[in-house]
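For this section, I looked closely at a protein sequence along with its fold in C-alpha coordinate form, which I now present.
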Amino acid sequence: MTAFRSVNLLVQFCLIVSCLCIGGLAYAVCVPTLDAGNINPNKGPWASSIYFKTSTTGRGFKGNKKIVARADVPALLANRKGKLYAYFQWFPFDDKKYKRYFDMIGVRISSNKGKTWTATRAIKVCGLPSGLVNVKNTGRPMDPAAVELSNRKIRLYYTIEPGLDEEAIAKVYSAISTNGRSFRHEGLSFSIKGVDIRDCTVAKLGKTWHMYCPNWKSNGKGYHAISKTGKKFKRSADAVVGGRRNFLGNVVNVKGTLYFYSGGWVATSKNGKRFRLKHKKGLPGDPGITYLGNKWYGIEAH
Protein backbone atom coordinates (compact mmCIF):
# COMPACT_ATOMS: atom_id res chain seq x y z
CA MET A 1 0.00 0.00 0.00
CA THR A 2 2.12 2.85 -1.04
CA ALA A 3 1.67 6.60 -1.03
CA PHE A 4 4.76 7.71 -2.85
CA ARG A 5 5.59 10.65 -0.67
CA SER A 6 7.38 13.06 -2.97
CA VAL A 7 10.79 13.84 -1.53
CA ASN A 8 11.55 16.60 -3.98
CA LEU A 9 8.66 18.81 -2.94
CA LEU A 10 9.57 22.19 -1.55
CA VAL A 11 7.29 21.97 1.43
CA GLN A 12 6.89 23.82 4.66
CA PHE A 13 5.67 22.08 7.76
CA CYS A 14 3.68 23.70 10.50
CA LEU A 15 3.41 21.73 13.73
CA ILE A 16 0.30 22.47 15.71
CA VAL A 17 2.10 22.40 19.02
CA SER A 18 0.03 20.97 21.79
CA CYS A 19 1.30 18.36 24.22
CA LEU A 20 0.01 16.31 27.06
CA CYS A 21 1.81 14.22 29.63
CA ILE A 22 1.34 10.49 29.80
CA GLY A 23 3.53 8.68 32.29
CA GLY A 24 5.82 11.69 32.47
CA LEU A 25 6.56 11.70 28.72
CA ALA A 26 5.66 14.48 26.31
CA TYR A 27 3.49 13.46 23.37
CA ALA A 28 2.34 15.58 20.44
CA VAL A 29 -1.42 15.31 20.10
CA CYS A 30 -1.67 16.06 16.39
CA VAL A 31 -0.07 15.30 13.06
CA PRO A 32 1.93 18.15 11.44
CA THR A 33 0.00 20.04 8.80
CA LEU A 34 1.66 20.30 5.43
CA ASP A 35 1.66 23.06 2.86
CA ALA A 36 1.51 21.35 -0.53
CA GLY A 37 3.45 24.14 -2.19
CA ASN A 38 3.58 24.45 -5.97
CA ILE A 39 2.84 20.88 -7.00
CA ASN A 40 1.80 19.53 -10.37
CA PRO A 41 -1.89 18.66 -9.86
CA ASN A 42 -1.74 16.03 -12.60
CA LYS A 43 1.34 14.16 -11.42
CA GLY A 44 1.72 12.39 -8.10
CA PRO A 45 -0.53 10.44 -5.71
CA TRP A 46 -2.83 13.49 -5.43
CA ALA A 47 -3.77 13.04 -9.10
CA SER A 48 -5.66 9.84 -8.21
CA SER A 49 -9.20 9.31 -6.96
CA ILE A 50 -10.68 6.37 -5.04
CA TYR A 51 -13.38 4.24 -6.72
CA PHE A 52 -15.75 1.72 -5.14
CA LYS A 53 -16.57 -1.63 -6.79
CA THR A 54 -18.34 -4.88 -5.93
CA SER A 55 -18.30 -8.53 -6.98
CA THR A 56 -20.29 -11.64 -6.12
CA THR A 57 -17.37 -13.95 -6.91
CA GLY A 58 -14.23 -11.97 -6.06
CA ARG A 59 -13.34 -11.60 -9.72
CA GLY A 60 -14.69 -9.33 -12.43
CA PHE A 61 -15.62 -6.38 -10.21
CA LYS A 62 -18.43 -4.07 -11.32
CA GLY A 63 -19.17 -0.41 -10.68
CA ASN A 64 -16.88 2.58 -10.72
CA LYS A 65 -18.30 4.97 -8.14
CA LYS A 66 -15.89 7.73 -7.14
CA ILE A 67 -15.97 8.11 -3.37
CA VAL A 68 -13.10 10.56 -2.86
CA ALA A 69 -10.91 12.73 -5.07
CA ARG A 70 -7.24 13.57 -4.53
CA ALA A 71 -6.49 10.32 -2.70
CA ASP A 72 -4.34 7.20 -3.00
CA VAL A 73 -3.28 4.04 -1.11
CA PRO A 74 -6.75 2.74 -0.20
CA ALA A 75 -7.63 0.19 2.48
CA LEU A 76 -11.10 -1.20 3.14
CA LEU A 77 -12.52 -2.76 6.31
CA ALA A 78 -15.91 -4.34 7.01
CA ASN A 79 -16.79 -4.60 10.69
CA ARG A 80 -19.13 -7.05 12.41
CA LYS A 81 -22.03 -4.60 12.23
CA GLY A 82 -21.75 -4.40 8.46
CA LYS A 83 -20.16 -0.96 8.23
CA LEU A 84 -17.53 -0.29 5.59
CA TYR A 85 -14.53 1.87 6.50
CA ALA A 86 -12.50 3.26 3.62
CA TYR A 87 -9.08 4.63 4.61
CA PHE A 88 -6.66 6.37 2.27
CA GLN A 89 -3.94 8.99 2.02
CA TRP A 90 -5.72 12.28 1.39
CA PHE A 91 -4.34 15.21 -0.63
CA PRO A 92 -7.05 17.94 -0.82
CA PHE A 93 -4.62 20.70 -1.80
CA ASP A 94 -7.15 22.49 -4.02
CA ASP A 95 -9.98 22.51 -1.46
CA LYS A 96 -9.93 25.71 0.61
CA LYS A 97 -11.84 24.09 3.47
CA TYR A 98 -9.75 20.95 3.78
CA LYS A 99 -6.34 21.75 2.26
CA ARG A 100 -4.80 21.80 5.74
CA TYR A 101 -5.25 18.02 5.73
CA PHE A 102 -2.92 17.52 2.76
CA ASP A 103 -1.09 14.16 3.03
CA MET A 104 -3.05 12.99 6.06
CA ILE A 105 -4.97 9.73 6.39
CA GLY A 106 -8.63 10.22 5.49
CA VAL A 107 -11.71 8.09 6.12
CA ARG A 108 -15.22 7.62 4.76
CA ILE A 109 -17.76 5.27 6.36
CA SER A 110 -20.78 3.52 4.85
CA SER A 111 -23.59 1.90 6.83
CA ASN A 112 -25.41 0.55 3.76
CA LYS A 113 -22.73 -1.42 1.91
CA GLY A 114 -21.43 1.46 -0.15
CA LYS A 115 -24.66 3.06 -1.32
CA THR A 116 -23.90 6.24 0.61
CA TRP A 117 -20.85 7.42 2.56
CA THR A 118 -20.10 9.91 5.29
CA ALA A 119 -18.23 13.06 4.29
CA THR A 120 -14.47 12.67 3.93
CA ARG A 121 -12.60 13.56 7.10
CA ALA A 122 -9.01 13.33 8.25
CA ILE A 123 -8.59 10.87 11.10
CA LYS A 124 -7.21 12.07 14.42
CA VAL A 125 -4.16 10.30 15.81
CA CYS A 126 -3.34 11.30 19.39
CA GLY A 127 -0.38 10.30 21.52
CA LEU A 128 2.23 10.45 18.77
CA PRO A 129 5.69 10.94 20.33
CA SER A 130 6.98 14.39 19.47
CA GLY A 131 10.37 12.86 18.75
CA LEU A 132 8.86 10.72 16.00
CA VAL A 133 6.52 13.21 14.36
CA ASN A 134 7.74 16.80 14.36
CA VAL A 135 8.55 19.78 12.20
CA LYS A 136 12.22 18.83 11.87
CA ASN A 137 12.05 15.21 10.73
CA THR A 138 8.81 15.59 8.69
CA GLY A 139 7.48 12.24 9.92
CA ARG A 140 3.75 11.59 9.49
CA PRO A 141 1.41 8.56 9.41
CA MET A 142 0.75 7.23 5.90
CA ASP A 143 -0.14 4.04 3.99
CA PRO A 144 -3.06 2.92 6.20
CA ALA A 145 -4.25 -0.64 6.86
CA ALA A 146 -7.10 -1.48 9.25
CA VAL A 147 -8.47 -4.49 11.15
CA GLU A 148 -11.29 -5.04 13.63
CA LEU A 149 -10.40 -6.68 16.94
CA SER A 150 -12.46 -9.13 19.01
CA ASN A 151 -13.57 -6.24 21.26
CA ARG A 152 -14.82 -4.43 18.12
CA LYS A 153 -12.19 -1.73 18.33
CA ILE A 154 -10.37 -0.81 15.13
CA ARG A 155 -6.61 -1.01 14.92
CA LEU A 156 -4.98 1.11 12.25
CA TYR A 157 -1.49 0.37 10.98
CA TYR A 158 0.56 3.04 9.24
CA THR A 159 4.04 3.82 8.02
CA ILE A 160 6.13 6.60 9.53
CA GLU A 161 9.37 7.64 7.86
CA PRO A 162 11.02 10.20 10.18
CA GLY A 163 12.97 12.18 7.59
CA LEU A 164 13.47 12.75 3.90
CA ASP A 165 17.16 11.82 3.70
CA GLU A 166 18.49 8.44 2.60
CA GLU A 167 19.22 7.43 6.19
CA ALA A 168 15.59 7.70 7.26
CA ILE A 169 14.13 4.21 7.78
CA ALA A 170 10.39 3.64 7.49
CA LYS A 171 8.71 1.47 10.12
CA VAL A 172 5.16 0.30 10.80
CA TYR A 173 3.25 1.65 13.81
CA SER A 174 -0.30 1.18 15.06
CA ALA A 175 -3.12 3.07 16.75
CA ILE A 176 -6.41 2.02 18.33
CA SER A 177 -9.94 3.44 18.04
CA THR A 178 -13.50 2.83 19.20
CA ASN A 179 -15.12 4.69 16.29
CA GLY A 180 -12.70 4.40 13.38
CA ARG A 181 -12.11 8.16 13.30
CA SER A 182 -10.18 9.11 16.44
CA PHE A 183 -7.15 6.97 17.23
CA ARG A 184 -4.64 6.66 20.06
CA HIS A 185 -1.09 5.86 18.96
CA GLU A 186 0.09 2.52 20.38
CA GLY A 187 3.70 2.40 19.27
CA LEU A 188 5.96 0.38 16.99
CA SER A 189 4.41 -2.70 15.38
CA PHE A 190 7.11 -3.97 13.04
CA SER A 191 10.56 -3.05 11.78
CA ILE A 192 13.69 -4.64 10.36
CA LYS A 193 17.03 -3.04 11.16
CA GLY A 194 18.33 -1.06 8.20
CA VAL A 195 15.35 -1.96 5.98
CA ASP A 196 12.52 0.27 4.80
CA ILE A 197 9.26 -1.34 5.93
CA ARG A 198 6.09 0.23 4.56
CA ASP A 199 2.75 -0.48 2.87
CA CYS A 200 1.71 -3.26 5.25
CA THR A 201 -1.50 -5.25 5.21
CA VAL A 202 -2.76 -7.39 8.10
CA ALA A 203 -5.27 -10.20 8.64
CA LYS A 204 -5.96 -12.81 11.32
CA LEU A 205 -5.89 -16.52 10.50
CA GLY A 206 -6.87 -18.82 13.34
CA LYS A 207 -5.23 -17.40 16.47
CA THR A 208 -2.39 -15.68 14.62
CA TRP A 209 -2.18 -12.24 13.06
CA HIS A 210 -0.20 -12.04 9.83
CA MET A 211 1.42 -8.90 8.44
CA TYR A 212 2.77 -8.61 4.88
CA CYS A 213 4.96 -5.89 3.39
CA PRO A 214 6.50 -5.69 -0.10
CA ASN A 215 10.26 -6.15 -0.45
CA TRP A 216 10.24 -4.39 -3.84
CA LYS A 217 12.43 -7.09 -5.38
CA SER A 218 9.72 -8.48 -7.69
CA ASN A 219 10.83 -12.00 -6.76
CA GLY A 220 7.53 -13.50 -5.64
CA LYS A 221 8.34 -12.98 -1.96
CA GLY A 222 7.40 -10.47 0.71
CA TYR A 223 8.23 -9.62 4.29
CA HIS A 224 6.07 -11.63 6.68
CA ALA A 225 5.59 -11.10 10.40
CA ILE A 226 3.30 -12.74 12.95
CA SER A 227 1.69 -11.78 16.25
CA LYS A 228 -0.65 -13.29 18.83
CA THR A 229 -2.10 -9.90 19.78
CA GLY A 230 -1.92 -7.98 16.51
CA LYS A 231 -0.03 -5.18 18.22
CA LYS A 232 3.65 -6.10 18.04
CA PHE A 233 4.88 -8.38 15.26
CA LYS A 234 7.89 -10.66 14.98
CA ARG A 235 9.49 -11.42 11.64
CA SER A 236 8.80 -14.87 10.22
CA ALA A 237 9.93 -16.62 7.05
CA ASP A 238 9.15 -14.59 3.94
CA ALA A 239 5.75 -15.13 2.38
CA VAL A 240 5.90 -16.75 -1.06
CA VAL A 241 3.58 -16.35 -4.04
CA GLY A 242 5.87 -17.04 -6.99
CA GLY A 243 6.55 -15.26 -10.25
CA ARG A 244 7.86 -11.71 -10.26
CA ARG A 245 5.18 -10.45 -7.91
CA ASN A 246 5.44 -8.11 -4.93
CA PHE A 247 3.31 -8.33 -1.79
CA LEU A 248 1.82 -4.88 -2.35
CA GLY A 249 -1.92 -4.88 -1.78
CA ASN A 250 -4.48 -6.00 0.76
CA VAL A 251 -5.21 -9.30 2.45
CA VAL A 252 -8.52 -10.50 3.89
CA ASN A 253 -9.65 -13.67 5.66
CA VAL A 254 -12.68 -15.27 4.02
CA LYS A 255 -13.97 -18.44 5.68
CA GLY A 256 -10.55 -19.53 6.91
CA THR A 257 -8.59 -18.71 3.76
CA LEU A 258 -6.41 -15.64 3.22
CA TYR A 259 -7.02 -13.82 -0.06
CA PHE A 260 -4.32 -11.42 -1.23
CA TYR A 261 -5.33 -8.83 -3.85
CA SER A 262 -2.53 -7.04 -5.69
CA GLY A 263 -2.04 -5.54 -9.14
CA GLY A 264 -4.85 -7.51 -10.75
CA TRP A 265 -3.79 -10.89 -9.39
CA VAL A 266 -5.35 -12.77 -6.49
CA ALA A 267 -3.64 -15.49 -4.45
CA THR A 268 -4.85 -17.62 -1.55
CA SER A 269 -3.25 -19.25 1.47
CA LYS A 270 -4.37 -21.68 4.15
CA ASN A 271 -1.33 -21.19 6.40
CA GLY A 272 -0.36 -17.54 5.84
CA LYS A 273 3.06 -18.51 4.52
CA ARG A 274 2.67 -19.83 1.00
CA PHE A 275 0.17 -18.34 -1.43
CA ARG A 276 -1.14 -19.96 -4.60
CA LEU A 277 -2.20 -17.85 -7.56
CA LYS A 278 -5.99 -18.14 -7.94
CA HIS A 279 -6.78 -15.83 -10.86
CA LYS A 280 -5.85 -12.55 -12.54
CA LYS A 281 -9.22 -10.85 -12.45
CA GLY A 282 -8.90 -8.91 -9.22
CA LEU A 283 -8.41 -5.16 -8.86
CA PRO A 284 -5.52 -3.13 -10.31
CA GLY A 285 -2.71 -1.42 -8.44
CA ASP A 286 -2.74 -1.47 -4.65
CA PRO A 287 -6.46 -2.06 -3.91
CA GLY A 288 -8.47 -2.25 -0.73
CA ILE A 289 -10.56 -5.40 -0.38
CA THR A 290 -13.07 -6.87 2.06
CA TYR A 291 -15.85 -9.46 2.22
CA LEU A 292 -19.29 -8.95 3.73
CA GLY A 293 -22.50 -10.96 3.49
CA ASN A 294 -21.36 -13.26 0.67
CA LYS A 295 -20.20 -10.32 -1.42
CA TRP A 296 -16.82 -8.77 -2.20
CA TYR A 297 -16.20 -5.05 -1.87
CA GLY A 298 -13.17 -3.27 -3.25
CA ILE A 299 -11.70 0.19 -3.66
CA GLU A 300 -8.98 1.18 -6.06
CA ALA A 301 -7.04 4.33 -6.91
CA HIS A 302 -6.51 5.65 -10.41
Q: What stands out?
A: The two ends are 14 Å apart (CA to CA).
